[in-house]
Design goal:
This protein is of the alpha+beta class. It is built from four helices and five strands; from the N terminus they run H-H-E-E-E-E-E-H-H. A hairpin with a 4-residue loop joins strand 1 and strand 2. The chain is elongated.
């Protein structure tokens, strides 16, 4: 007597397609959330990094994947750049090893380049202009940390 009622309940009275969609809906929702929270931001980050690498030029101050601060001294080809990590110390690295550009140099326009060339030719004298004053480098190591936290000079 109870068995026949159980078989009747299991067979269901239609709505099999609707029940399938209801079971699939949580998985679909999880996939959509993963796309918007994980996949899409990663794609945007990769696109920004690709643009950053594409627009590298001489004089840019960069950070490498190893955490080395360097200045781009020469763009060798599409895959490599030469960076100067210290005075006179130049290293060739892959463009993909650049993780961040700290300071971007301004491109020289054609008009400015022509004016600079004509100005250099006109001012071909032995007297040099005085060098601009530069600030001393901030203290490094523990002294630098203390001066930052304590507001020292």
């Amino acid at each position: 007597m109870f068995i026949s009622e159980a078989w009747a309940q299991a067979a269901g009275g239609g709505g099999g397609a609707a029940a399938g969609i209801q079971q699939f809906l949580p998985f679909l929702l999880i996939i959509v959330v993963f796309y918007f929270l994980l996949i899409r931001p990663q794609q945007a980050k990769a696109k920004r990094h690709k643009e950053l690498i594409k627009n590298l030029r001489r004089g840019d101050r960069v950070v490498t994947t190893g955490g080395i601060l360097a200045t781009v001294s020469k763009v060798i080809n599409d895959g490599e750049v030469q960076v100067e990590i210290s005075e006179g110390v130049r290293v060739r690295i892959l463009r993909n090893a650049v993780t961040e550009v700290l300071a971007k140099t301004e491109p020289v326009s054609a008009k400015e380049g022509d004016e600079a060339a004509s100005t250099d030719a006109a001012n071909d004298s032995s007297a040099e202009a005085p060098a601009p004053e530069t600030k001393p480098a901030p203290p490094q190591g523990i002294a630098g940390l203390l001066s930052r936290f304590l507001g020292g000079k």
